[in-house]
Design a protein that fits this description.
The chain has about 260 residues and is mainly alpha-helical. It contains 9 helices and 2 strands; from the N terminus they run E-H-H-H-H-H-H-H-H-H-E. The chain is globular, with a radius of gyration of 18 Å.
């Protein structure tokens, strides 16, 4: 049965999650996703071999995971909502990986490639429309993205939801309280920046351009925040800092 879900971008997007920098994360789950406090679980070695290259995987992800209207959420997230978001993004990722592997999806012919790329483009356009509408109604991009992922998660098979929720609860419980608070502080700071930017947008065309820019390159303040974290860490004589994860695009498959 086809999944009706958010194209993420998105899966993806866009909650500013505090993550340890590369080299400090432990075994890589691929690339860190838009999860507060972590990325997504990597599939078993035999499953990795069945996954396509990153570009092809990204196209499949955007084509298979369809946008839906986001549920209303407010940043900072309550514990239960944050845990559900962790479950949603990891559960959706696994659903896509399984679908590619089990059904042997590929783009070996030009016809197949054109079909999947057309569907991905269609979903991107719909995702933009839904995010623009949410922003117009008072949400930030992050809030719209998280709400879309939550709505998407409810359309996964019940068994997949239960499995993802169980793993998310363990991940959430295992996170140090200090990291959890830093995550929320950074998310709230970025959300405030978005609200300031949104106040300057007066037309749907401007909102659309703003949403498309974030989906393509991440929030404009993300790089600045990363540099500030690095400077703070250096001033303290250390190298640890909380990396802003923009969630601007679907995650690539694990390597």
């Amino acid at each position: 049965m086809r999944l009706l879900a958010s194209s993420l971008l998105l899966a993806l997007a866009a909650f500013v999650a505090a993550q340890p920098p590369p080299g400090q994360r432990g075994p890589p789950p691929g690339r860190g996703g838009p999860l507060p406090g972590g990325g997504r679980p990597a599939p078993a070695n035999e499953d990795r071999e069945k996954l396509p290259d990153r570009k092809t995987y990204k196209t499949f992800f955007e084509a298979l995971v369809e946008p839906v209207a986001p549920e209303p959420v407010v940043i900072p997230l309550e514990d239960e909502v944050e845990m559900q978001f962790i479950a949603a993004t990891s559960g959706i990722q696994k659903w896509v990986q399984d679908k590619i592997s089990l059904e042997g999806l590929n783009m070996k012919t030009d016809e197949q490639k054109q079909k999947w790329e057309a569907k991905a483009a269609e979903n991107k356009a719909k995702a933009v429309e839904l995010h623009v509408e949410a922003v117009k109604n008072g949400a930030t991009f992050q809030e719209a993205h998280i709400g879309m992922a939550l709505a998407q998660f409810k359309l996964l098979p019940e068994g997949a939801q239960e499995e993802a929720l169980e793993k998310a609860r363990e991940k959430f419980k295992g996170r140090p309280e200090g990291r959890r608070e830093r995550t929320r502080e950074h998310a709230s700071e970025a959300n405030h920046m978005e609200k300031v930017q949104i106040e300057q947008l007066t037309t749907d065309e401007e909102r659309k351009a703003w949403v498309e820019e974030i989906m393509q390159n991440g929030p404009p303040h993300a790089k600045k925040m990363r540099e500030e974290r690095k400077k703070e860490a250096k001033a303290k004589g250390g190298t640890q800092y909380q990396q802003v994860n923009t969630g601007a695009a679907p995650p690539p498959p694990p390597q």
